[in-house]
Input
Amino acid sequence: MNAMKLSEGERLILFMLSEIYEHLGIQTGIDPKFVQSAICDGHAWGLKRKYPGLFNVDEADQSVISEVSNILEMWSFLESSYDQLSVADKARLIDSS
Output
C-alpha cells in the first residue's frame, strides 16, 4: 500500500471537516476522532488502511466516461422531446411500436 502524502492544506481541511462531523454528530462510516488522530500523529497511512474503499478505487477510462455521458445526454433529449409531444402523437408513437 503506497504511503499517503497530504499537503499542509489538505491536513488542515481534513482536520476541520472531521471537527465539523464531530460537532454536528454526523453518523456515517467515518470516525472523526480517528481521522483527527491519524492526521495529528502523522499516520495518514492509517486512513487508507481503515477506509480502503475511499482510496483504492480505479478511475474509469475517459472513453467510457465520454460514452456514458453521451448516452445519458441522448436519453435526456429523448425524454424531453417525448414530453413535448401531443397526447395524440404519444399514442401514435406507442401504437407504432
